[in-house]
Amino acid sequence: MWEALDLHHYLKLAISFCLVYVVLKAVQLYFHRRRQVEIFKQFPGPPCHWLLGNAGKFNRDGKDLDVMVEWSEKYSGAYPVWFGNFSGFLSIAHPDYAKAIFAREEPKTTLSYGFLVPWIGKGLLVLTGPKWFQHRRMLTPGFHYDVLKPYVKIISKCTTDMLDNWEKLITKQKTLELFEHITLMTLDSIMRCAFSYESNCQKERDSAYVKAVFDMSYLAQLRIRTFPYHNDIIFYLSPHGYRFRKACKISHDHTDKVIRQRKESMKQDKELETIQQKRYLDFLDILLFAKDEKGQGLSDEDLRAEVDTFMFEGHDTTASGISWILYCIAKYPEHQQKCREEIREVLGDRQIMEWEDLGKIPYTTMCIKEGLRMYPPVPIVGRTLRNPVTFFDGRSVPAGTFISLNIYGIHKNSSVWENPEVFDPLRFSPENSANRHPHAFVPFAAGPRNCIGQNFAMNEIKVAVALTLNRFQLSPDLANPPIKIPQLVLKSLNGIHVHLTKLK
After folding, report:
1. Which of 31-45, 271-285, 313-327, 345-359 has the lowest mean pLDDT?
2. CA atoms of 206 and 192, how far apart (whole Å)
3. Is residue 11 in a domain?
4. 218 to each of 85, 243, 316, 386, 446, how far by Cα in Å?
């Protein structure tokens, strides 16, 4: 009997504790909302639903980004967006507003990037403050053009493997979905360039590591858009959380093994020059030899984080860029033909690109940039202000404000770009680019936290586009147009389908 009374007593205490917690949480949310409403009062924005905020306008139907472009046009490039009635952020889609944020070293937002930490660790993408600055300085030599030069032939080989596979596939099927194949190609090339690892992932798609990388990409995005999964405990206990942890372990074990083997092989080679005589320098070489101003190298944990970050950022974003650019070129045969004539004049009878070729295809490069303008691989990036900021028009927001930089919206802003929905590569001719706002075209972000690997990415895009157009005629699958959805990178809900015809 006494045991029953004690149990009843503890149950009442537990219920009381839960009620107090709920009340305190509700009060916290109430005052948080009041503060945000006060901050955003100076920024007119779209009307909100009493419960959903603006979330009801986003239906994953391919129009979500375009809805935000409409709001940007109506509310002058800076306006609040509410998900529910307690979580809001300031969305920016004008280069003058973007300039004020990109110029600062503001940290990435926890909401999206924080969920990647179990996978990529605390590398350059998510670090802040002095440690971010230290890593940025230590990693910069890894993207010097002397290091990037040998990568062009590696990327050419990976692209050629993909195109050889396409030749076989188009004899069996009418159309080809680009993103899946290009993602495998960019994963293959990044593994070879990052740590000289022959993955054969384009042929061995069922390898544990490749499946783990795809699982982590999918599950990280699933967690971002599934509100209950924002809670660590709920996600940890869910089947998706278990699957994510399993994939992370496979990835980390693979990275640790590669680093361990490289350290063993480097015991005889004390200098980068010695290694370079034997083979090209890869990203892992640069990381292992990197030293800060005190002569300290990266810890094993930091090494793994930077390698995994480079793997994540270097394959999915580039695959998105290449896929959408090829889709644009497929839609506009007149531009496609001009690119092909330029490419064939440079390549002649060669089937691979070389470093010197990259600067000899200006029209193709303009088409690539226009594709990146229309379909930026990372359509939205987030920042959390550490300090207050005052914009060019005098309006201010305090520290702690969540800023969403809508790169897609900046690239479609009609006050900057004439007829922004028209594909026009000549926007990027030297004479047309000279007087444009420096923050009007930001596919790799801008300022001190811009993409450190943007030259690597542009080189890979040029190689993949050039070799593809040299071998195939592309045309869109009009019966199955892509439905664009903003995730960690810009993807299509139904894939990106094109018709391919082998050229002589």
Report:
1. 271-285
2. 18
3. no
4. 28, 11, 11, 30, 27
> Do the Cβ atoms of 375 and 484 come closer than 8 Å?
yes
* Upper half-sphere CA count for residue 105 (Cβ side, 13 Å): 10
H or E stretch at 405 = strand 402-406
7 occurs within a structural domain: no
Binding residue numbers:
451
- Give tens-digit pLDDT for 291-305: 888 888 888 888 889
Residue list for the binding site for heme: 451
Taking the C-alpha atoms of residue 240 and residue 221, their distance in angstroms, rounded to an integer, is 11
Let me know if residue 27 belongs to a domain.
Answer: no
**Count of structural domains, the chain:** 1
Q: How far apart are CA 287 and CA 245, in angstroms?
A: 26
Average pLDDT on 46-58 reads 86
The reply to whether 23 falls in a domain is no
**Who's near 240: CB < 8 A, 6+ residues apart?**
219, 222, 223, 229
- Neighbouring-strand partners of residue 177: 497
pLDDT tens track for 387-439: 999 999 999 999 999 999 999 999 999 999 999 999 999 999 999 998 899 99
Tokens of 147: 């290091």
Residue-number span of the structural domain to which 261 is assigned: 35-502
The pLDDT tens digits for 76-115 are 899 999 987 778 899 999 999 999 999 988 877 766 678 8
- CB contact at 8 A, 302 and 284: no
Q: What is the CATH number of the domain that holds 455?
A: 1.10.630.10
